[in-house]
Amino acid sequence: MKAIAVYQHLATDHPNCFAEIELDKPQAQGRDLLVRVKAVGVNPVDYKVRASIKEKLPTPKILGWDAAGIVEEVGEKTSLFQVGDEVYYAGSITRPGSNSEYQLVDERIVGNKPSNLSFEEATALPLTTITAWEALFERLEVEPSKTANNQKSTLLIINGAGGVGSIAIQLAKQVAGLQVIATASRGDTVRWCRQLGADNCINHHEKLLNGLEKMDLSGVDYILCLNSTDQHWQNMAEVIKPQGKICSIVGNQSPLDLNLLKSKSVTFAWEFMFTKSQYHTDDIQSQGELLNRVSQLVEQGIIKTTFKENLGVLNAANLAIAHKKLESGKTIGKLVLTGIESKSFIN
Fold this sequence. Notes:
31% of the residues lie in helices and 24% in strands. By secondary structure, the protein is α/β, with parallel strands linked by helices. The protein has two domains: 2-125 and 279-344, Medium-chain alcohol dehydrogenases, catalytic domain (Quinone Oxidoreductase, Chain A, domain 1, Alpha-Beta Complex), CATH 3.90.180; 129-270, 3-Layer(aba) Sandwich (Rossmann fold). Helix 12 links the parallel strand 14 (307-313) and strand 15.
C-alpha cells in the first residue's frame, strides 16, 4: 500500500519534509478493522509529533489521526462493523496513522460515518469531536442535555474558531444548552464562532475579565482552554467562579500555580483524547459510541461539520502545505485531504 511518512523533522518547505513510501497491506485481526482511507483530517497533534522527531528514524513514521473510509476487512473478534461499512475515527497515537491507503483501527473507537456527509466533510470531525465531547461531558462533567442548570450556566471557550473549538461550541450550545462565550480576535473568526452558536465573543489578546465585564459578567462556571495554558492561566484563575471547573487540552511549558485555584475550590482537569486507546481503558468503547451519537446529530441537522478547506489529494506536497497552515496558528475549522491516489505518487 502507499503511505505518506516522515523520517525526521524538517521544515514544511523542505522537499523531504514528507516521504511517499510503499508498505505491505496490513491484515485485520482480533478487534481490528482494515479501513480503506478515503479522506484524512489534519490536526495540531500531527505537526507536534513531527516536530518531536529530532533524529532520523530507521523506519519512517506515518502520522495522521483523523480518517473517514470504508471497511475492507474485519478481524475475527469484531462485532460492531462489517465489510462495506462507511466509518470515521481518530485512531490511536500508538499505532500507524491515517496518512496511508489502508489503516488498522480498533473497532471500539470507530463510528458510523454520517450518511449525509462526504468522506471529506466527515473526516473533519472525529479527533476534535472526541476531544470536545470528553472535555465537556466527562472532564467538566456537564450534563449532555439541555437541563435547567445548563441553561443558566456559562462556558468560556478559549480559541473558539480552531478545530476543537468549532465543534465544542456546537456541542455546548446545541446539545447541552449552555451560554457559550468564545474567544476570537479577528473579524472572520468572530463570525465563524457566532455562526456555530456562540452567544458572545471576546478577544483573548486582552484581559478576559475585561471582555466579560462588557457583558455584565464577573465570571464563568466552566472554562475550556484550547490555546496556551501557560498564557491564559492567570486570566482563567481570575474569571472562573467559585467551585467552577477548568479543562485544558494544551500542555504547560512552565509549572502551573494551582494555588491560584485553591480559595475558590476550583477543579482542573486535562483532556487527552488518546488516553483511552493508549491505555486500553475499560471505557474505550465510549469513543465509538459518542461518534455514533454525533453522527446522528449531524444527520438530524443539529450539528454540522467543521470542514473548512480541502487541500487536494493526500501526497507529500499537499500534506506539507497542511502542516504549514496549521503551524501558522491562524486556521479556522478543519483542513482535510482526499485519500491517496496512485497517480499522486511520483514514479
